Each structure stands twice: as C-alpha cells, then as structure tokens.
Amino acid sequence: MTRKKQLIIIGGVAAGVKAAARARRVNQDLDITLFESGADVSYSACGEPYYISGVIPKREHLVIRRPEEFLKDNIKINIYHQVTSINSDTQTLVAVDTTTRQSKQYHYDQLIIATGAQAVIPPIPGCDLQGVVSLRTLNDSDRLRQLLLDKQSIQAVIVGSGYIGLELAESLKRRGAEVSVIDFCHQIFPRIDPLMSELIQKKLLEKGVNVFLNESIDSIQGQKQTVESIKTQSGQILPCNLVIMACGVKPNVSLALQSGIKLGSTGAIAVNQKLQTNVENIYAAGDCVESRHRISGLPAWLPLGDIANLQGRVAGENTAGGNARFPGILGTSIFRCFDLQIGMTGLTDLEIKDQNIDCCETVIHSRDRARYYPDGQTLSIKLTAQKSNGKILGAQAVGQGGVAKIIDISATALLGNLSCFDLEFADLAYAPPFSPVLSPMIIAASELRKKINL
Ligand code: FAD
After folding, report:
1. What integer is the mean pLDDT of 198-217?
2. For residue 303, how far is its CA from the centre of ligand 1 (angstroms)?
3. Contact at 8 Å (CB) between 110 and 283?
4. Catalytic (active site) residue 337
5. Are strands 299-300 and 291-292 parallel, antiparallel or unpaired?
6. Global model pTM greater than 0.90
7. pLDDT at position 269, please?
8. Could you tell me the distance, in angstroms and rounded to a whole number, from the CA of residue 160 to the centre of ligand 1?
C-alpha cells in the first residue's frame, strides 16, 4: 500500500484553516494535520471589537468552524500544540502538547507555515500589571470583555491609533468607558494621509474621546498589582484602570528563522508567487508573510484577514498538487470608528513621496446619496493619479456611508490600470438612496482629470 502524503499546517486562525480546507477540496488523498498553539481555531479576530462592545453577544458567533467539524473533512486539528522546531533535512517537526508537556515528532511531505502575527508590547515598566491588555486572540477578547463587565467605571487609555485602537475606542465608549487615545505620531491613524486623519480626529473628539498626539507611553503605575495611571514621555499622568496596547503587530517568524527560512526586507517571511519559501516543500501564508505591492512593485507587509484567506487558498491549492499564484496586494483596507467609515487603497502620500512619483491629487466632499433623499451624509474622497498619464495611484475615503463602494471601485481601477479619464465616464450604479446621480467617484475623477489637464 502506498503511504499517503502528509500535509502539515502550523497555525489555525485564518490562513492555516483556509489552506487546510482548500487542500482537502483539491486533493482527497492527502493526510492533513494542523497544529495550533492556542485554544481556538477558525475564528474571526476581525469581529472581536464588536464582541467586546456587545454588538456580537457571544464568542461562538465569531467561531467559523470547530475542530470536530474539520474532522468531517478528515482534517486533524490539534489545539494547544506548539510547533517548536522544524528539520527541513529530514522533513520532520516537533510539536509539544502544552497541556501535558509531551512532545512528538511528525513527518511532513509539504509544510505550510501560517503562524500569523502578535501584538507589539513596548518594553516599559508596569506592563505586567493587571488591567494592561492587548487584543489578538479570542481569549484576549474574553479577558477584555470580562474586565469591562467587572468594573463599575472604566477609565481606559488606548496606546496606538491604528485601526484596532480606533475600533476599540468605539467598543469601550459603547460600554460607557472614559477613553483616551495616545499616539507617538503627529496624527491619528498614521497610515492614512493627514487630511483624512483630521476627519477621524474630529469624530473622536465629537464622541468624547481624549486624543494625545506626539506622545508615547513612558511607564504604567499601579498599586496591589493593578494599574492606576500611565505616565507619558512628556510627563503627563493619565489616571486609568485599563490600558490597551494597540501599538501594532509583528510577524511570528522565529520558528521560520530557526529553520533556515529567509525573511524579506519587511521582516516577514519571503515567498514567491506560489507562496513557497526558500526551503523546499515549505510554504507560508497569512500575516507571517511578506507580499509584493502591485502598484509600487516593492515588498509590503499588510497583516489583514482578507489577504490571509487569499494566501491560505493559494498555499493550500499548491501543496495539494495545484498551481495557484498570489499576485500581490494593493494596500486596501477599511474599518469603522463610531459612525465613520474609513477606507484606503493603493499608494499613500508617503509611499508616493518615497518613490519620487510625480503625482496629482484631489479631495472632494460630496453627498453619499441624492441631495433630496433623507439621511444623506458627507463623503470625503481623496484620489491620486500619476501626472504624466492620469493613471490612478491611490484612493482614500472617509464618510458615514458609501466608503466601501468607493474603495472597491478604486481598488478595481488600480487592478485594471485605469486612469481618472476612464473613471470619469464609468457607468456606475445610481438610484437616489444609494448615490447622487453622478457618483462621488466620478466627481473626484473628473476633478482630478481637470487638474492634470489630460
Ligand atoms: P493569525 O490570526 O495570527 O493566526 C496565527 C495562529 O498561529 C495563531 O493562533 C497562533 O497561536 C498560531 N501559532 C503561531 N506560532 C505557532 C506555533 N509555533 N505552533 C502552533 N501554532 C502557532 N483584518 C481585516 O482584514 N479586517 C479587519 O476588520 C480586521 N480586524 C481585526 C481586528 C482585530 C482586533 C484583530 C486582532 C485583527 C484584525 N484583522 C483584520 C487582522 C486579521 O485578523 C489577521 O490578518 C488574520 O487573523 C491573520 O490570520 P493568520 O492566520 O495569518 O494569523
């Protein structure tokens, strides 16, 4: 009898489980085993801020598939199993059952590393006090949710104004907390262009969130092991009983590094379009992996769930005998902060400047539906194009409605190499409840075309 080929996957949140499911669909004969060091697999971390706020009432709602459901597809899931080493010469790895401390060696024919990313915790005094938390796993959200339920009144400081920090500002406000956000950058949500950032800051202030910019955290003070305040580097003391570290994430690459797998310039695992690493029969996917930016052609690392799922599909298909390719990313993302939607795709101001691209940009403020139709809101769009040919380079949008539509049109325009001239005459959907008669996208493209004088 011929031995079944062994596919092993390390990491079981998004990229890992997507890879397992895809590999099984493509190849019924593979033996598929997944190791996950945590307690949960196949869940939506993206939904955690809404579980914390109470909009999503139960943690089960965020779980997509349980280990026993994978077993129906003959995919063996081992939770609480930490892979501690990989030997690529013998094509074996060691996994430790963290409940019994027993370790075991496993053989693989193909291996997918989907170890994801972890929250960055700045090495400052007081980080180990009770009430200092970060958010990544479902267990992290359980802990944070419980802390919010246990305390009579919450004074929270969120360190970092990336999208997770801003989503949490809304979640905590919904729970009645007093919230401050601090960021070492001069603007809120440093990834976005300054004009758009101002709109987010305005919303935070309107919702009663205190904002401290150009400020970083120096230390956390507390008594009886419990947090009482933070001190900023400029010497301000902010009293609080909850500190949320939302200062970014870093890829989990130590296992890959130990195994001789090369990293890219961003510090994440370098892979080719088939998601193969430099080591034979080892693939990688998701937040631990570096991508190529499709507009600049440069290495890029954007740890997002949709990319992790797309990459998981490619890695799963290829390890099952297929020939799929992951073409790269556009830098598309969207999130909500209170009633404001914030989205972006393509290159930012900073990236365009870094690459010395001669560009032209426009910012428009339009209605998101027909002027006479009730509940219309302002939608702000920033569109940037190359000066020489009007080719779209990037788009950002902030508003209470219609942001996802604008960003998805723009991402598709980027994919198709379209110019502002193409977009100005795009046949986009219109009816009064959805858009003004000329879509704000068309208005922005038209303004940009006039500026570029094409
Ligand atoms: P991870 O989710 O990090 O999973 C990797 C898993 O590997 C972890 O469970 C880890 O325990 C395990 N692991 C690591 N090392 C080992 C080892 N040695 N042995 C065994 N197991 C190991 N993205 C979006 O696109 N949109 C959103 O709205 C959005 N919102 C988010 C909100 C929050 C609060 C968070 C935390 C993330 C959000 N994301 C969002 C990001 C998205 O969740 C991640 O991009 C996605 O989870 C990445 O999936 P992954 O499988 O690559 O990695």
Report:
1. 97
2. 8
3. yes
4. no
5. antiparallel
6. yes
7. 98
8. 18
Q: Which residues line ligand 1 (CB under 6 A)?
A: 10-11, 13-16, 35-38, 45-46, 48-49, 82-83, 114-117, 135-136, 164, 252, 255, 286-287, 303-306, 308, 335
Using DSSP, state whether 421 is helix, strand or coil.
helix
Whole-number mean pLDDT of the chain? 97
Name the pairing type of β-strands 31-35 and 117-119: unpaired
Instruction: For a ligand 1 pocket test, name from 120, 275, 304 the mutation site with the most ligand atoms within 8 angstroms of its C-beta.
Output: 304
> Which ligand 1 atom sits nearest the alpha carbon of residue 15?
51
Residue spans of alpha helices (H) in 151-252: 163-174, 194-206
- Residue 314: which residues within 8 A CB-CB, separation 6 or more? 274, 275, 285, 324, 325, 326
Per-residue pLDDT of 384-418, as tens digits, reads 999 999 999 999 999 999 999 999 999 999 999 99
Buried b (16+ CB within 10 A) or exposed e, 214-236: ebbbbebebeeeebbbbbbeeee
pLDDT of residue 135: 97
How far is it, in rounded angstroms, from Cα 93 to Cα 282?
Answer: 12
Residue type, 283: Y
DSSP element (H, E) containing 24: helix 15-26
Q: What does the alpha-carbon distance between residue 59 and residue 143 come to, in Å, rounded to a whole number?
A: 12
Q: In what order do the strands lie in the sheet with 81-87?
A: 81-87, 92-97, 102-107
**Is the pLDDT assigned to residue 1 strictly greater than 80?**
no
DSSP H or E run through 410? helix 403-415
347: its two tokens: 């290159």
Report CA torsion sign: 98, 102, 103, 107. negative
Given the structure tokens 């942001």, which residue do they identify?
403
In angstroms, rounded to a whole number, what is the distance separating the alpha carbons of residues 111 and 75? 14
CA distances from 104 to 61, 91, 96, 174, 342 (A): 33, 14, 7, 46, 47
How far apart, in Å, are the Cα atoms of 86 and each of 17, 216, 315?
Answer: 20, 38, 18
- Chain segment 311-356, per-residue pLDDT in tens: 999 999 999 999 999 999 999 999 999 999 999 999 999 999 999 9
Query: Which stretches within 112-182 are classed as H helix?
Result: 138-150, 163-174
CB 264 within 8 A of CB 290: yes
